Amino acid sequence: xxxxxxxxxxxxxxxxxxxxxxxxxxxxxxxxxxxxxxxxxxxxxxxxxxxxxxxxxxxxxxxxxxxxxxxxxxxxxxxxxxxxxxxxxxxxxxxxxxxxxxxxxxxxxxxxxxxxxxxxxxxxxxxxxxxxxxxxxxxxxxxxxxxxxxxxxxxxxxxxxxxxxxx
Length: 167
Prior knowledge:
Elements: E1 2-3, E2 12-13, E3 17-18, H1 21-32, E4 37-45, E5 52-61, E6 69-72, E7 83-94, E8 98-105, H2 112-119, E9 146-154, E10 160-164
Parallel strand pairs: 2-9
Antiparallel strand pairs: 1-3, 4-8, 4-9, 5-6, 5-7, 7-8, 9-10
């Protein structure tokens, strides 16, 4: 038994846990083969003009800070360990200093959403690691604004199950 997938520290939302070893292996295989549909709610700093978009880069460990990931431009030489990262987003609402997004990740890389939003110059609100020094933070927010809101996966019984978690 155990945790099927991880959420980053300070990310709220759905966490899937298997009660039996066989179920754990069955469910983890679906994450590995990208058969699981995952959606997040994210509050990005600044106003994102496009109603939706896709971010596709190589992601690898940052040479400047080993705790962080770096999105590599197509023209940059990426380390061999860098792997493809694909993030899709849709604007849910725009505010004066922020944009509320629904984010789908096609790949599951470390810090993928945080790194990709910073790459397009709209880091997560409250993100102390990837945010810019002058990034605004909503009053009272003490963590990055990232919430795992939806998960769709096939259970060992063959039933496809959808899980939802409101903010």
